[in-house]
## 1
Amino acid sequence: KRFAVQGEKWKHTNLTWSLSSVRRPSQLDPYGTRSVLSRALDVWAQASRLTFTEVNSDDADIVVSFAKRYHDDAYPFDGRGSILAHAFFPGSGRGGDAHFDDDELWLLQPRDDDEDGTSLFAVAVHEFGHSLGLSHSSVKGALMFPWYQGIQPNFVLPEDDRNGIQQMYGPKTSNKWARIPYYRPQEPPQTTTTTTTTTTTTTTTRKPYIHHHHNRHPERYPNRAYTPYPRTPSRYPSYYPERPYYPDRRHYNTSDDHPRRTNHHHPYSRPTETTTHGTTYRPRYPHVRPEYPTNPRPHYPNDPSQDNPRKPYYPEKTTQRPTTTTPSDKPDTCDTSYDAVALIRGELFIFKNRYHWRIGARGRYSGYPMEITRMWSSLPKNLTHVDAVYERPDRKIAIFIGKELYLFDSQYLLPGYPKPLRTFGLPESLEKLDAAMVWGHNGNTYFYSGTMYWKYDEEKGRVDYDYPRNMAMWKGVGNNIDSVFQWKDGKTYFFKGKGFWKFNDLQMQVENERPSLSASFWMGC
Amino acid sequence: APTRSRPTRSAHHESARGYLETFGYLKKGRPEVGNLLLVDSEQAYEDDFRIAIKTLQEFGGIPVTGEIDEATKALMKQKRCGRPDREEDEEQHGHRR
């Protein structure tokens, strides 16, 4: 009993929608209708990477229309009956569209005593689930349950639906893979109008822009001492119209009657310009977050508060700072062996103990080594190390730990994992893998362990029958390797200890007997 | 000998069949002549119909009896989405994709 994914899904996540210009609701006001539809889409947007933009066109991805009885598709409505609406799975043309039975008594703001009316919001949230690719679910209480259930006032997206949409489109992006957009008090873009037909350009006179960090809109917030600019869209536009929405700054004083109190402890809101550890903090009105390539705040080596981003950092109150101890297993970047090496999304990932480095086109990312679990949070909390990692031809990321395989789609653990190695035809007695790779020479996948290696059939999901074979095939690397992978140059590299070999795929032997030092070549030490 | 014929089905049975076909629990179109089934497929049809009723009851979260009982009738009257609960391609794969 769980959600069902139909199969088709949108290839892009920035979807457009519109209320049909032809088939509008005959008993509802269009503005109220569009507000309810927008809120229904926002339910799915809040749980996934999807964004929805209303457009004034019948070519939108999702076109919502109200129709009666037969209406040019194979699913006629039944008047004021049991069938309320239907929607089409993602696709071009009619794909994604949602049709509502205009004979029903639709309610924009249903009250508890409305017996025969139907909540447009409740049905719209369900139908948009179809528009995004979800089938019906047999879980009672789930949005995708086919029978009408209305919506509770303090509505929260049920677990089953959340799992369904997140499996298809991934959860709302966390800042691991992309940065959070920041808002700055910049001068608003001055509009210049260009008349293309007569090729004359008329420029409007530029209004002097004065940034008020006091109450900029007294008519809207009479008792507000300060208001953010520009305002981010409020998460609950119709429930709390007055309250601005700060994406992730829960510790802000949100009562509207007192002047904003600045939290001195939070690194992004220091009262005066200070320079700490070589980083200068400018005054923070309005609250602007400095831009960091990957981590929303600077990484201070040997500072335990970096391990827990939720815990504020105390630069000034040195007495309060816990004594800094370097975690015992944190490897030295320039003097270590590697547990696993893999090319993932075109970037080099090197794993050692609980940590990993990430090396892109411009060299090592700052802020590393970082805990592996901060990137793949579904790995076990008591993780000590990983044994092998590789990116499969289907772009899934396989992480082997002991006798189990964890399979990720980006950083989302796929349902049903981890799976034991025997599921893939590997012997029960096998304690762990040493390495895994897709060998560019023939495109096959190979697993290595001790003195043996296996060829793995990605289609069948199991190793071939005439394996394992002896590691001697890979002349020069010996047994018990640490890792192997194929770099962008198409060459294969075997790792053991603090060294590595470049491997000649044609001659099936290492290019030179003596291994080279990994730290200088791969880590740039 | 004349083929054995069954009395025509009850109205409940017919409306239930339409419902089951509409929402993907029962294949559309039965080898019928008017309202009388061809003898050799009658048993098969009975089985399919009973399985379809059970599947609907399970999906709807009501007691699984295989009969068109009161709970099943109430479920069939309840407001709902017009899409099938079991999509066509699930028929081929034998499971919900």
Note: Confidence is low (pLDDT under 50) at residues 1-7, 31-39, 90-97 of chain B.
## 2
Amino acid sequence: PPQTPIRAAMTSIQQLRGDLISTGDQPSTNLATYFKNCTVDPTQDVVKRLETLGQTFSQRFGQAVGPRCVILGKQRFTLGVRLYYKVMEAMLESEEKRLSVQNFSKLLNDSTFHTSLLACALEVVMATYGGSSFKAGGYSHGGGGGDTAETDVCFPWILDVFSLAAFDFYKVIESFIKADPTLSKDIVKHLETCENLIMERIAWRTGSPLFELLKQEHEGGAAEQVETPAS
Amino acid sequence: SHDYHFGLEDHEGISELFDCD
């Protein structure tokens, strides 16, 4: 049968759910071992953070889409958590191979890392359900939005929900794509569009941590860099 | 597969991006 937007969306949703069916709502044995190998075991903080962010997410999803859809928000959050654990494990395996270390205590106790990774997983889930549209309000990229309630929860909505700096979200995108080779072409394209939006606009808004980093880089680098203006 | 351009070098990963190698 000919491919229609509805059929394509249904296929993507089925594929995502299928990929995550074997992934539990808890860290796998392998991921739990990475947690245990840390100087400071992050397990409790990870669980607590997911509880807090889960409540915030469901509440805000209900506000955006409608109070009757709170259950849908919870289902999407559950899928997002599964993807978060799956990708985290793959990232750590890849880092273990690259760095030959098994103790990722600093990274796994970094709240911003976890929030960014979870936000990226949820963005993938939301984009799979809602299609690759972007929130209205001046963004020229994306598939033109549409007028369904789904557009209210499209990027960069998740950044606002988790009070996450776009610059921190940006950091996980590439590693996320590398760590999950099962992501569809459309989802990769969606994440790439998020990346472009951040790079071109969102990261440059007032209050972005990027300005402080640039300042530090400029101050710290001035003595080291002796390149001429021409180079 | 997809056309995503990977910009990170082989010696860079998520640990460096969050300043904890």
Note: The mean pLDDT of chain B is 77.
## 3
Amino acid sequence: IVGESYRWPHTIPYVLDDSLEMNARGVILNAFERYRLKTCIDFKPWSGEPNYISVFKGSGCWSSVGNRRVGKQELSIGKGCDRIATVQHEFLHALGFWHEQSRSDRDDYVSIIWDRIISGKKNNFESYDDRQTDSLNVPYDYSSVMHYSKTAFQNGSEPTIVTRIPDFMDVIGQRMDFSDSDILKLNQLYNCSSSLSFMESCDFELENVCGMIQSSEDSADWQRVSQVPEGPESDHSNMGRCKGSGFFMHFNRSSVNEGATAMLGSRILYPKRGFQCLQFFLYNSGSEYDQLNIYVREYSAASVNRTLTLVEEIKDVPIGSWQLYHVTLKVTNKFRVVFGGVRGAGASRGGLSIDDINLSETQCPHHVWHIRNFTQLIGSPSGSVYSPSFYSSKGYAFQIRLNLSSLPNVGMYFHLISGANDDQLEWPCPWQQVTMTILDQNPDIRQRMSNKRSITTDPFMTTGNGDYFWDRPSKVGVQDFFPNGTQFQRGRGYGYSVFMTHERLKSRDFMKGDDVYILLTVEDISHLNTTQNEPTPTLGVNDLCTNFKCENDGICILHNGKAECRCPSGEDWWYMGERCEKRGSTRDTIVIAVSSTVAVFAVMLVITLVSVYCTRKKYHQETSSKTANMTLENQHA
Amino acid sequence: LPTPEIFDVDGGIDQDIFDINEDLGLDLFEGDIRLDGVQERNS
């Protein structure tokens, strides 16, 4: 939207209204994390700023466009809107974005089929000129999260929007994540060049290897190569799609003796949040006794010797493919991440290879389900594939079910299963939010459009026969067996029959080398079941403000050592008084002005009438007395 | 009725934002934009 007044500050104050569903609350916070990773926009709980976004469960999913400067600006995440990309979409509206296909140049890229649009809805397909919208020199973006889908407002089954390049027909209307152009546009609109949580991404395509350094205190070096005879045959970034390119770093075990090490350190990194997730792909073509150690080398005033701390040891059986790894770090000083290859026993050739490293100040997923030979599973007779069993951080055992047989859709469901901790756990399982992500394996975390959906266990939810849906699986589940023959009970599944389409799953980098990764996080979100409508007082204000309550959502602040109220106001209304107890509005002012005018007019009228009456009366009396004493003469002169 | 083995949150339909709002009978600008008097565009 054109106009600087519509911009928000880079950190947007928000309130999550009590009306929001628990699942929606978690999803909204996840959407904020995507903003923090890919853009310079951050969010903070409202603490009295003049304008803020109040997210609530209204009817439907909607937002205003831009900062309306009305104090509390509402954004609705209603039933069915608790999807991360939908929240991203609505917040992009709030940040000042219109829909992509309303751009002035859209007719050059898509055709609107007017007779397929529902009667009375054609106005939704108007385009606007550059007095109202600015595309910021970014090309038309079919893959924008702000683009209508091809079926928007259709009156039948035929598409209402036809892309001029047919390949994009199934791209428009993606509700997965920001596109590259969405991010470019947002970062231009808000003049930003960095994000809060992104730190580093390296695919080793450039010879400078992203500023990584070889240690001088080890016995070997990592080498930048494009293939190794024993494997891998190609890097992970390009998977052999580009001849002559595609590099990774390799530690050749055959060139060193047992116990030899090679240390490769990242450039120096500066943390802001104090927690990090390191993600990379590893290929072991050597021995099962080889090891990759992940270290952190911290630089701080206290540690003059640049402390090297071992964070994780990774031992992997050579399986002939790239494998995804996550390592959680908690670093607060400037640091380097160090990859240490260690040659173990055994005479095999090959070695360790790493590629597509990403470091961000985000939470790592709790579990990774790596599905190999994925295309063989599509159309399998059983139709459903179950993940291995996993345990949540609270101790709940669970499985994920992937349904591949219901073409054209891929379904995904979460099942609680019986586990070792069941006697110690709370049942029905309360407020665990499960986030299931099909990973877009783009080498750069900022360019990924992973498909992510969440569900939350509601302990009060019941089934048709009166059982609690999330009760103990040994009580409400059905019996099944693990591949090793162990018996267990599986509860009912809860999820999405249309998690994504097969067509979309084949797009981008969801499938790479016939491998698919499903990332899983199960976290307790009970703490979100609290009210957040009071502004957070600043330090020191609390004591003086304890006995000084402001009415009508006013904020107590310290001014010259005294507690005072700052009262909320909008475009045409405000609260005033010592405690914001009085309400004012422009309408009141008009009413006062008009009533004053009328009153003055009435008073003046009364005074005039009285004056006229008195004058006339006096004149009449004088005339009568003169007439009585007068002798009339020459009456008929 | 017995509850099926799996429960579909979306009822088997992948509803876009505009479909959700349409089903609710909302008449929002371009399907999901709330306009106020000041910014009203010619629709």
Note: Chain B touches chain A through 37 residues (CB under 8 Å).
## 4
Amino acid sequence: SSPLPLVLNTWPFKNATNAAWQTIASGGSVVDAVENGCTVCEAEQCDGTVGFGGSPDELGETTLDAMIMDGTAMDVGAVGGLRRIKNAIGVARRVLEHTTHTLLVGESATKFAESMGFTNEDLSTRASKTLHSEWLAQNCQPNYWRKVTPDPSKYCGPYKPSGVLEQGIPAYKEVDIHGHD
Amino acid sequence: TIGMVVIDKMGHTAAGTSTNGLKFKIPGRVGDSPIPGAGAYADDLAGAAAATGDGDVLLRFLPSYQAVEYMRRGEDPATACQKVISRIHEYFPEFFGAVICANVTGSYGAACNKLPTFTQFSFMVYNSLRNQPTEEKVDCI
């Protein structure tokens, strides 16, 4: 027999898998299932790489990216660099349902989310603030700058273009498997 | 990041992602996750896929779209995922990334790029042959 329906997700985020399955089992659509499954991970901050309070940027802010794709209608809703709104996949679903656009980004995406009834709230937590201050204390290592001055492999910014390849070629960066997209 | 693929009994597909991205990113940086075809892709006529890892690299290869196109041409999901990883590996041998793939009959697979600290990739499966979500691991190539 066909093993359908099927729920598949990256990493061992079991609660998200279960939430998606329960949605299908109770008659929800596959788009509902993806939204509900990912929402669970956002709420649970799955391994710190999903949802609020993780992966602060250089200024200590957490921003969120999400998308949802309906493979029947080839319809998509997505948000990038979403600020101060926790339920990113919910906002992505609203982009799919209530606009003919595909991707909304940044501060304007936040305004769209507020118009859809989502709450504007701080996404940082004590944990993300601690992570950020430790990073600052380690001269902002690792970072994603190159060919700038001062030497990004040694110092924090602000940086300016230097036109010179790094003063020291950045050593191979150890992969942080808890820091991913 | 969570990347998710769902296919119902009628073969309707959906895919999605949610993430807070890379740590200590330059403000304004967005990875692969919200980009259709990169973070995730779904098409009832072929299947669905989702990717996770270093989004700066993944974004350049549209791995989810590529995986669905391989499945559209008849590759099984595991092979489709492996071909996508091999494609990226040619250009970025040390990239951190993994892909999950499923076709519309409910077959599924996954693949990842082997690194010293990343030799296996864990993902979750729940289908009508099981009564609970099950963790599976795949050896990276």
Note: Chain B touches chain A through 73 residues (CB under 8 Å).
